[in-house]
Structures are given as structure tokens and as C-alpha cells.
Design brief:
The complex is a heterodimer of chains A (380) and B (129).
Chain A (H helix, E strand, L loop, with lengths): L17 E3 L17 H14 L3 E4 L13 H14 L4 E4 L10 H6 L4 H4 L10 E4 L4 E2 L20 H8 L2 E2 L3 H13 L3 E4 L4 H12 L8 E6 L9 H10 L6 E6 L1 H13 L3 E4 L15 H15 L6 H7 L9 H8 L33 H5 L8
Chain B lengths: L3 E9 L2 H12 L2 E4 L5 E5 L9 E6 L9 E5 L3 H10 L3 E9 L3 E7 L5 E7 L11
Parallel strand pairs in B: 1-4, 5-8
Antiparallel strand pairs in B: 1-5, 2-3, 3-4, 6-7, 7-8
The chains are: A alpha/beta (380), B alpha+beta (129).
């Protein structure tokens, strides 16, 4: 992204989109404010929305077992209830889920990655599904301190800590090429989650190849341990590589490091995600619930003088429901140079004949050029 | 206190159809629990001692018949007694969140049944995929 001198003034920034992640699939009720029953899980969304969150990162906990659900029907049921309880909220389903077929017939139908591709067939549809592009190690405990896990089941539990340390996300081309195709077919937007610059390069290549044609909403995933860490220079370096036309960029990080990075994100005009999935603490080292974290992000944003987005504004900023029909259209909206044509040399720019033209693409802004061209008089 | 049989479960690959079967065959009132694959059976008039159960998908247990649940004072003590007396544990201690602990065991002759200890604080340990 490119910053002009007035870009960092709060009044020139897009309103802040706050994503709430209140379902902490890695925690248990004794660890944090974890909702278990259906009513509790729905209420968590309502409370986060009322506090100022406009995007909900959805995980589903099976109230019958207490574990993260792998039941396709339960996802559909829960999304249906969320649509009723928080109809304006943007629902973003966590993509790290592999559904368990229930019957022999279903097991025969859903093979290998199909159990992950089932996310693309959720009904009712969510607005987005998170998509990892590129296989990555996610040793999330490597960046945590002993204080971060006080009072959780990780404390004094080296066996579970070792299990967490061994986490990795399987997202090779055999998965993401088909997954993006099915998301488009079902009109569910991907929410990209690159863990470092080189995964953004993969995403850009997918766009240049026409595998994905649409607005880019993305996280920068900075949980350490194979994903981006907490070095602000690395975050700035990553931010510099993201195209000017990306609809939204959200900083994802963990524990108290999230608070500093959220502050950075807010003053840089980017967006934040908070909640017990990422962090359990306030800056003072005391526990904070997901709702309290949302309230904290709202306070910080208002103190800086930036507006917090309404749900309608968040939907518009993220261009929810918008799809493009060509590679060029996508690159143009993203502010990326075009693809190289055969034999073309030099750095690439969009072609122009140097003449004033009527704006063809208004995008989200007012088509000024069109207004400044007087209509041609019509004669009989 | 003597342990008593409190409820039972019936398993199948198509539990909704199975629930319909029992509704018609035995006249039971069976309703699906909201948002989960569990059809609650009310086999008797509702009162505190009613003997009921549920229909759900077949778990990976060596059970073809109905599975009776016996309420015990201590699941851990009963599991130890079962093993000491020549029985075996078929499914280890498992939580029904904020409701109870249960396990499935077999007697020395191989007859399978479940034991159940109510506990509003029950919750499963964390499991990584």
C-alpha cells in the first residue's frame, strides 16, 4: 500500500472494521469466556455486535460434546441462528475445518479434501470463508510467554504445549485451487489469510492466472512460529507489498502482542480482529473477555479520532457480494499492473492513448470524469 | 446406593427414519433436540422417574442392540470395579458438557452397557486434531 501525506489522518481513513473472534476453539470453558450451548454461542455474537464488531469469525462448538464441531448440519444450524440474531453482521467462517461424514453414503461421497470443500456448500451461506494459500507451520506457543497461559489448560502441561507447537496448516495447490473454484461457484467470498509475504505472492499469482477474480479481503497472520512474528518492520514490509486496492487488511496476532499490533493497525488505516481466539488479556495483564476486547478496540479507535464502521459500512468497504469477470478487471480494481503480453518489455502500466475519456469503471467512487464531460447535443 | 438404569440409546445410520419407526411401532413420543443429531425418546408419562432415551447416529462401538445407561455414584470407582471383576472398558470416560461423565463397558460375558455419573462441571479435555 502507498501512503500519501494525508493518508494517516484519521478523517481520511475508512472506518475501522472490527472482527470479533469469540469462539476460541483452542480453549475450554475453564480457560476463558467460552460459549458452549447454542444460546450462549449466539449471544456471544450479539454481544460482540452490540459492542462494535461488524465481522464475526465463526467457529462452531458442538454443545453435546464440548469439542469443536465437525458436523456440517450443525454449521448450517448455527449460521441460520446467527443470520436471525445478527442479520447485519458479516459472517466469516474459519476455514480450518474438515467435516466428518456421518453415514456410509456420505463417507463415499466426501473424500480427502472434499470434507474441507464442504465449507463452500454451507446453507445458509456465510459471507466469507477464510482460505490459507500455502502450507505453513503454526507453532503458536513459540511466541507465548508463561504469563500468557496462566489459568488455562496449557499451564504446566508440556504435553499439550508440544501438541500445539506441532500445528501446521495444510494448504497446497491441490486444496486451494479447487476450493477457490467452488467458493466462486457458490458465491462465497474467500477471506485470504497469508502468513507471510510469500503467501501473498501466491495469491497475486492466482489472481494473475484468473483463478480468483474479485475484491481482496485479507488478514496478515502474525502468530509467530512459522507465520509472521511481531517485528513491526516485518509488518510494514508486508503492508507495503499489499496492493492499494485491497478492500480490507486486518491484523491478526496473539495475546498481548495483539494489542500493540491492533494500535498500529488502527493508526495505519487498517483493520483489527480481537477476541478470545487470539488473546485473553488486557494491556495491564488482567483478563479481558471477547466483548471487553471489542470495547477496547472501539475506545482506542475513537481516541485516535477514526470512525468505527457500521455493519453497512463494513459490507461496503469489503465489497461483500462483488465478483469480477476478468483478470484485467481484478488487477485494475486492486491497483496492480496488468499481466505482461507476449513480447512486451519494460515495467507494466495500464495502456492509455493520452486522450480524455468517459470513465468506464466508477468503482466505489463517484465517476467524476463522466460528470465533467457535457452531453453531446442531440439533433433530429 | 444401588445403581439404577436411567435411560437407553438406540443407534442407526439414519436416526431420523429410525425415530419414525419407533414412533409408529411403539407409540413413543420422540422429538429432535435442537441443533444436534439426537432424537429424545419419551417412552413413559413424564415424571421424575420416567425411563426414556435417545436415537442417534451409530458410534464406533461394538453395539448392535439398545445401549442401557446405569447411573452410578462414581464413574471412576465403577470403572475400576468393572476391570477388577473381569469386565473391560469399551469407551473411556467421556464428558457430556456440563451434564455428566459416561463410559461404555462390557461385563465378563461381553454384554455391553454404559455407566453415567451426573456432574454439572463435566467438560472434556482439550483435544488437538
Amino acid at each position: 500500500m502507498y501512503y500519501t501525506p494525508d493518508s494517516i489522518l484519521p478523517e481520511n481513513m475508512a472506518p475501522l472494521i472490527i472482527t470479533a473472534a469469540p469462539y476460541g476453539p483452542e480453549w475450554m470453558p475453564g480457560d476463558a469466556d467460552i460459549p458452549v450451548t447454542w444460546d450462549e454461542q449466539v449471544q456471544a455474537a450479539v454481544d460482540c455486535y452490540n459492542a462494535g464488531a461488524t465481522v464475526l469469525h465463526v467457529h462452531v462448538r458442538d454443545p453435546a460434546t464440548g469439542h469443536g464441531s465437525v458436523d456440517f448440519d450443525q454449521f448450517n444450524y448455527f449460521i441460520g441462528r446467527l443470520r436471525q440474531a445478527v442479520p447485519k453482521m458479516i459472517l466469516q467462517v474459519g476455514g480450518s475445518i474438515s467435516f466428518a461424514p456421518k453415514s456410509d453414503g456420505a463417507k463415499a461421497k466426501w473424500l480427502d479434501y472434499d470434507t474441507r470443500h464442504m465449507l463452500t456448500e454451507l446453507d445458509p451461506k456465510p459471507d466469507c470463508v477464510t482460505v490459507a494459500v500455502g502450507t505453513t507451520q503454526w507453532d503458536v506457543v513459540s511466541i507465548m510467554t508463561p504469563e500468557d497461559i496462566v489459568g488455562t489448560h496449557l499451564e504446566n502441561n508440556p504435553k499439550v504445549q508440544a501438541a500445539w507447537a506441532g500445528m501446521w496448516v495444510d494448504a497446497g495447490p491441490a486444496f486451494y485451487l479447487e476450493h477457490l473454484k467452488r467458493l466462486r461457484a457458490n458465491r462465497i467470498m474467500p477471506y485470504f489469510v497469508p502468513a507471510h509475504i510469500h503467501q501473498w505472492e501466491l495469491i497475486e499469482n492466482l489472481i494473475r492466472a484468473g483463478v480468483y477474480m474479485g475484491p481482496v479481503n485479507m488478514a496478515i497472520a502474525g502468530y509467530g512460529g512459522g507465520t509472521l512474528g511481531r517485528n513491526p518492520y516485518d509488518w510494514m514490509n508486508f503492508l507495503q507489498r499489499i496492493p492499494q486496492g485491497a478492500s480490507s487488511v486486518t491484523f491478526w496476532a496473539s495475546m498481548r502482542g495483539l494489542i500493540s499490533l491492533s494500535a498500529m493497525s488502527i493508526v495505519l488505516g487498517q483493520h483489527v480482529r480481537v477476541g478470545n481466539e487470539d488473546n485473553l488479556w488486557g494491556a495491564d495483564g488482567k483478563r479481558r473477555t471477547s466483548v471487553q476486547q471489542v470495547e477496547g478496540a472501539v475506545r482506542l479507535c475513537r481516541e485516535f479520532g477514526r470512525k468505527v464502521a457500521t455493519a453497512d459500512e463494513a459490507r461496503e468497504i469489503m465489497k461483500i457480494g462483488t465478483w469480477y469477470d476478468s483478470v484485467d478487471e481484478t488487477l485494475h480494481h486492486l491497483g496492480l499492473p496488468p499481466n505482461r503480453k507476449d513480447g512486451q518489455t519494460g515495467f507494466l502500466l495500464w495502456e492509455t492513448d493520452g486522450r480524455k475519456t468517459i470513465a468506464k469503471t466508477g468503482g466505489d467512487s463517484h465517476p467524476m470524469a463522466y460528470c465533467m464531460v457535457p452531453p453531446v447535443p442531440q439533433t433530429a | 446406593m444401588a445403581s439404577r438404569v436411567t435411560h437407553f440409546e438406540i443407534y442407526g445410520d439414519a436416526p431420523a427414519e429410525l425415530a419414525s419407526f419407533y414412533r409408529e411401532a411403539l407409540g413413543w413420543r420422540i422429538e429432535r433436540a435442537e441443533g444436534v443429531d439426537y432424537w429424545r425418546i419419551q417412552a413413559e408419562a413424564a415424571d421424575a422417574q420416567a425411563y426414556g432415551g435417545g436415537v442417534t447416529y451409530r458410534p464406533s462401538l461394538p453395539v448392535q442392540g439398545w445401549l442401557p445407561y446405569v447411573q452410578v455414584d462414581s464413574l471412576d470407582a465403577t470403572l475400576a470395579a468393572v476391570e477388577r471383576l473381569g469386565g473391560r472398558v469399551v469407551k473411556e470416560k467421556t464428558a457430556v458438557p456440563r451434564t455428566a461423565w459416561y463410559a461404555v463397558v462390557a461385563d465378563p460375558a461381553g454384554n455391553v452397557f454404559a455407566i453415567w455419573q451426573p456432574d454439572p462441571k463435566a467438560f472434556p479435555p482439550f483435544e488437538l486434531d
